Task: structure prediction
Amino acid sequence: MKYLILSGNPKKDGLCHSLTEEAKRGAADGGAETEVITLEKLERCHVCGNGWGTCREKHTCAFGKDGFNEVQAKVRSADAFCFITPVYWAETAESLKCFFDRFRRCENMMNSNGALSGKQVLLIASPGGSGNGMLTCLEQMDRFCRHTNAVIFDYIGVNRWNSDYKKTAIYAAAKAMAGGRKNGETV
Ligand SMILES: Cc1cc2nc3c(=O)[nH]c(=O)nc-3n(C[C@H](O)[C@H](O)[C@H](O)COP(=O)(O)O)c2cc1C
Result:
């Protein structure tokens, strides 16, 4: 299986980076082919026309050549996911938010044919400052999953004083997903 990690983290070190490594390691140990994609190079939604562009009928973004098309194709071909972000302003990092904005438009009316439909997603938010904003950030990612018919495997919030045991949870969650554990199974 292909396990794709979509990250809003702009940094190559620190808390959020270390959590991403745990998800990657867990998925790989569960037998998955893993890839991490960071999204900070992608542009925001241009809000074409009167509110809809090619996203509505063609399910593609008119500005997709900035790298969005490539990520969209990778999402379509992957089997399971982790969305991970540092918490900024009690929300996801702007890069992940911009991707969500564009991607869910392209998923409009796709129902069960959507790129994320029925696929499991692990949601991770790391508020590394005050620790505030974890729930609102996870809720924002939850809403994206509802819009795209993704199946949320788990929600993990990580701050500076719980990261030791939450890292263990991230590793175990990604490994379980990669190993084929389905929502609703009893462990
Ligand atoms: C613009 C900005 C806004 C932030 N807002 C919050 C916040 O609302 N709550 C919080 O706990 N940390 C906040 N932080 C801190 C980040 O969450 C922290 O940098 C992040 O968890 C990553 O930690 P790391 O840099 O060690 O990877 C903010 C950081 C930035 C740059």
DSSP finds six helices and five strands in the chain. The chain has one domain: 2-173. Residues 11, 14-17, 86-90, 126-133 surround flavin mononucleotide (CB under 6 Å). Residues 27 and 175 are 5 Å apart (CA to CA).
